[in-house]
Write a structure and sequence with these properties.
8-stranded mixed β-sheet; 4-stranded antiparallel β-sheet; 15 strands; homotetramer; alpha/beta; 255 residues; Vcp-like ATPase, Chain A, domain 2; Rossmann fold; globular; 2 domains; 24% helix
């Protein structure tokens, strides 16, 4: 139902700048600049209801979405932003049943997005060579309870991708061009390869490798996201924005 | 398998401007500016392989993704573009099991995107008041074979939304502000309402109604998509682009 | 010549983040995080040469342009940014001989840009109602030595614009719509009215007033400026940018 | 005065898509899709007044600005757009008295913009190697009557720039990196070099050459211009826009 239970994750919303994504445990308090909240009091309430801090400030109890979790990851490490993650999943045609290989797990933000889309019948195989990121990603995937759909590997994909007949390979690594022939072997015929890179020099090299490896339907795209100030009498885009995250390069394998 | 079978949809790729999304039927030909292709010859081939037209031009046989279908719909009617559709699905937290109401089916492009994400355990309920769009959407959803996950209604949502405890309501209509209190009733607590509108005047009115109806975590976003020319020696964004599709306004229900 | 003289303004360039726009006076020092510079040592050098601080850091002595002065003003008050100021001057057709009225002097950044373009035969008449901005603008115009081409007025333009047969009226005020009929009287036939506003609600009202007042050739434009990281091996737009400054609305007077 | 005289250029405005920039000559007619206009009838009228075609359609008589001329050039050849031309002039600090070298005259659009800013005491020296462009530019500069402030050269700047102590060198050529050491010689100390290039590969090479030649204060910028639909009840950016023109790279000479 809509009732909040022990061990649930909830997002406590005070205002745009103050949202708290926490796990509900008994006998705990959440301390905020606007007083503390006794977590036991939340258990049994309904999502959408309000809870008061000890000094009377009202927080709305929200059910977190995958986006809320990912933005929480972003506070600690760099992530692929929602605008890019959702676009990547879409061009990859990723949905229930998809078999996906990710190279460069990072914090696991994209891994989690993908896992939430391939379930219940698909799977994400994710390669990471840096142990500290492997550990961070592990924690994050556990937080979202998605390990049923994810195999996390501390392994250099340059030494080979174990999977075959993959629907989509997604790369977020400094040198995607080195992996393209390996990714090609893992992919199904007409399968989709996607690479996310911050610099245009990386895009240039990736394109050359894609062309050499006879990929077709090649695209390079960047998405600019503008968020507005939410005041209906003073509507305007926010002054400061993230003006660049990275370029999305993608293509299809031809045999 | 990867083998192409009768009745499959395939995307035949010649170059960036010439892609053909067709259904494979026996005894048929596809006529193009580069000669015709005998469809029987494709059956039994593998995705990713090439097929020659009668004048020797090579086409790559690709498995279409949801994106390919949607871009095909776009040739006949206006659609919500992939960049917006994928973003909407992401902020709505839509995945296997989600219960979604769509108001304003239009050509069914977003309906299909959503259906491909909620399967196998979720469902999309889509309202349309214009009979001609209802019929177009019906055909499109059938083409993608997604009716198991979609209920299409020729009904004005202003007269009431039949569903309750909905995870996400998505509106693509000229007057979203008129529907917000009705959408609120259908939504679960902390459920997400999303509205897509081309003009900023619509955004203004929608915001006023969201605030009146005590929605929280309100956002207005626009996405600008820049595609590049795919020539590694002459990298540059394309000269002419779609500079605007619409604004995405979204918020959470508080009780 | 190119020789630096006493009382000249110079821009001392260390790196992208550390530039110092100062007036050269005898017996003074400029203190920086990289040591101090004895200003007397700069006098007599050539622009483009280097000067060392007491700890050996090299600064390049540059001749400041109008842009450098304006970016200096920006540290203290809000200004119309170079991208907008230059566009405004261009659509206004402003060059030597132009007669321009500015409503809303602010810090005088745009005033100075305009004055540098109308000289030697044109003139800028600038109206400001807030005394503190009048004083700031006065100082800034003096710094650039442009008072020969500017008349600064502490006066509400709502009470009337004193000038007639004006080539261009430029407004940077919260309520441009209230001034449009008054601006029209001041303008020559087919003269150009330009308004700069941060919110789209202001644009809406301004447009209604322009249409009512029979202006023609009406435009609304926004400019998004993306600066790149200057590393040829890692080319990419900067992560954080100014995503919005304001909308430029402009039109021509018809009689 | 504001009175229209024989031999004047006028802009006849019908609506956003139909504007006619013509020279007023006796005994001539302008033929439009909305009837013809007898040019003699315009002479003696005032700018801002209306003139009727033989079928009663009203056109407003406007004084063209430099922008109108340049957009007229754009119909025949590629030009540097107003948004870029005005920005370039601004960062170059170009105003009355500036001494400017342009390499790559093209159609002369930027040449005219610059000339209109350096007058009456400055000068623009413009180099072009393609004879057909030299001729087009010549005509365009004549149309604007700006030859007093422009020296047009049919000469390859690679063989040397004749001018010294130049305030600003502006390049719009395919290989700016080959000219940078030559441009440096022509520039004053701390003078400004600006290059406009459509591709990022050109920017990369230009940057390497600027760094090698010890230029400082190096920037790369792109400007995205979004024009809105001018309907106050349906405010929105236009659907299709020019998404890319080119990158502006600029820097200062250090000795």
């Amino acid at each position: 139902m809509d009732e909040v239970r022990e061990h649930d994750y909830v997002l406590l919303y005070l205002d745009e700048r103050r949202k708290y994504l926490i796990k509900l445990e008994r006998n705990k308090k959440l301390h905020t600049h606007k007083g503390y909240i006794v977590l036991d009091e939340i258990i049994g309430k309904k999502f959408g209801e309000r809870i008061k801090s000890n000094i009377g400030e009202e927080f709305v109890i929200c059910k977190p979405t995958i986006r809320d979790f990912i933005l929480k990851f972003a506070r600690k490490t760099q992530i692929i932003y929602p605008k890019d993650a959702s676009y990547i999943a879409f061009i990859g045609g990723i949905s229930n049943g998809s078999k996906v290989v990710e190279i460069g797990t990072g914090s696991g933000a994209l891994t989690c997005s993908l896992a939430s889309l391939v379930k219940p019948n698909g799977h994400v195989y994710s390669y990471e060579i840096r142990e500290e990121f492997y550990e961070i990603a592990k924690k994050n995937i556990e937080m979202l309870n998605l390990f049923e759909y994810v195999t996390l590997k501390l392994k250099n994909a340059l030494e080979g991708i174990d999977e075959k007949d993959v629907d989509c390979v997604i790369m977020d690594i400094p040198n995607p061009w080195d992996l393209i022939s390996i990714a090609k072997e893992a992919l199904k015929g007409s399968g989709i390869l996607i690479s996310f890179s911050p610099t245009i020099n990386q895009v240039e090299k990736t394109l050359r490798s894609l062309i050499e490896n006879k990929f077709i339907d090649i695209h390079v795209v960047e998405l600019i996201e503008r968020e507005f100030q939410v005041d209906p009498s003073r509507l305007r885009p926010k002054t400061t924005i993230i003006g660049h995250t990275g370029y999305i390069t993608w293509a299809r394998k031809s045999i």
